[in-house]
Amino acid sequence: MKFWTWLRSNPYFVAGSSAVFGAVINGLYQELQAGSVDWTLKGWESLGGTALGAAIVAIYHLYTAPPAPKQ
Q1: If I label 50, which of 20, 22, 61, 65 is the partner at 20 to 30 A Cα–Cα?
Q2: 70 found inside a domain
Q3: What pLDDT is attached to residue 38?
């Protein structure tokens, strides 16, 4: 269990797994909407933007403190 806790708090794992998951979700969305994945430069920019955004949000949430409970 200690390894899993360390892995979840590792920023490289968080950023990488979030970027991959975001890119996969974007590809699936393109597949469902257009019937095929867009392999043009615009499609790659969309995949990269989604992956970068997911990694940024994951890193932000990794380093922010949880809110204090209200009394």
Answers
A1: 65
A2: no
A3: 72
